[in-house]
Amino acid sequence: MWERWIILLESRAVKYLLYIALAIAISSTCVALYFYAVIQLSIRIGRPPPIGGIRIQTLFTTWAYTALGSWIFIAATLAFKGIVKHLWCKNKLDYEVFKLLVKMRGSPTRVRILRLLEKPMNRLMLARELKLDWKAIDRHVEVLEKKGLIQRLGMKRGRGELYILTDMGRTALELLEKLNALQAYMNTSASSN
Fold first, then answer.
1. Which residues are CB-neighbours of 94 under 8 A, at least 6 positions away?
2. Which of 3, 53, 85, 91 is the most buried (most CB within 10 A)?
3. H/E element holding 77?
């Protein structure tokens, strides 16, 4: 579930949406400030506002709430992205590992492999457990080993070498669980509003 949120937040559409929200926020803030200045100026000189008192106050309120909503959307999106980045960097994991486990094609399979490698297994055992082609497992294991998330034990069971999760891999799985918890919290707080 967290993968969908993170992939959504990292997508081009959300980046464009952020740019649009920023444009709306800036323009609506400027318009709200203009209407506020017109109201204040008309109060100081003792004349009614040029558009009409009630109508200009309604316009001011509308633009002010539009600006506020846009700024809140921008802040919330950037805050969530910052929390995710902070969690990964604090635990000495780089962005490449993040992409490998969350954003790239095949990332759910890699996460399942990491979870299975809590106990030693060879590639054939992984392929049978995940019901995937042996060659696909071979490629995933190669990538995970290259990033230091799993390691060879040096022992063999059957025909293949055994692999096990490293401390770095355990840390990555723990971070994924934290992201799951953060996602669950966001879902419950959003549904309670």
1. 88
2. 3
3. helix 53-90
> What is the spatial distance between Cα 22 and Cα 26, in angstroms, rounded to a whole number?
6
Asked if 123 contacts 134 with a C-beta cutoff of 8 angstroms, the reply is yes
pTM over 0.85: no
Q: Each residue of 45-60: pLDDT tens digit?
A: 777 666 655 677 787 7
What are the start-end ranges of the H helices in 94-192?
95-98, 107-116, 123-130, 134-146, 167-192
Q: What is the CA radius of gyration of the chain?
A: 26
The phi and psi torsions of 52 (rounded to 5 degrees) equal: 125, 135
What residues form DSSP beta bridges with 163? Answer: 121, 152
Q: Tell me, letter by letter, the H, E, C secondary structure of 27-57.
A: HHHHHHHHHHHHHHHHHHHCCCCCCCHHHHH
- CB of 153 closer than 8 Å to CB of 159: no
Retrieve residue 126's tokens: 């992984």
Region 155-172: what's the mean pLDDT? Answer: 82
Please give the Cα distance from 165 to 129 (Å, whole number). 16
> Which residue from 143, 149, 142 is spatially nearest to 169, judged by alpha carbons?
149
Provide the 10 A C-beta neighbour count for residue 98.
Answer: 22
Which residues partner with 121 through β-bridges? 163
